[in-house]
Amino acid sequence: MRSRCTMKHLGITVALLSVLAAPGVARAERIQATLTGYEEVPVVSTIASGEFRAMISRDDQSIDYELTYIGLQGNVTQAHIHVAQLSVNGSVVIWLCQTVSPFLDPTGLATTCPAGQLTEAVVRGTITTANVIAGSQAGQQLTAGDLGEVIAAIRAGAAYVNVHTSLSPGGEIRGQIRASHR
User: Fold this and answer.
1) What span, in angstroms and rounded, lies between the C-alpha atoms of 76 and 110?
2) pTM of the predicted model as reported, rounded to 2 decimal places
3) Is the dihedral of CA 75, 78, 79, 84 positive or negative?
4) Structural domains in the chain?
5) Which residues partner with 97 through β-bridges?
6) Cβ neighbours for 1, distance < 8 A, ≥ 6 positions apart
7) If I label 95, which of 47, 81, 103, 144 is the partner at 20 to 30 A Cα–Cα?
8) What would the pLDDT profile of 155-182 be if each residue is shown by its tens digit?
């Protein structure tokens, strides 16, 4: 009888410790951005909109993403992740897609942006260290291959996604990346 009680208490203790330890276990992290012309610098008057949804892997070694956009007023040319706070332009660190030239993306890994002027377009992919390029603004000290630094910038609210078009070469829509609870 005593042995059965001890086993029961041991089982309860193990279950309790598992529950208490669960918050320390690494979980995949959802991030997102809503893209509009009002977040571009300078602001762009456009009917276009977009959504960036992504999942940072548990080990911070990759980011699976989906970028959608609709209603662009110009032909899409490229889309990126940049490092900079809200209302400031920053260095491109990750190419999400491109259409203008296969030679622009120095990694050669960017997918082709689907046309999306009047219909919704979707770009999906996985970002790894191979996709990270050095920041073009020297003061930012962003190095090629440092996905950890990009993830740190995302977590700090200092990264954004934007979609560039022929009518708005600096970007037609943009959105600051934030944690997502959906």
Assistant:
1) 14
2) 0.82
3) negative
4) 26-179 (2.60.40)
5) 79, 111
6) none
7) 47
8) 999 999 999 999 999 999 999 999 987 6
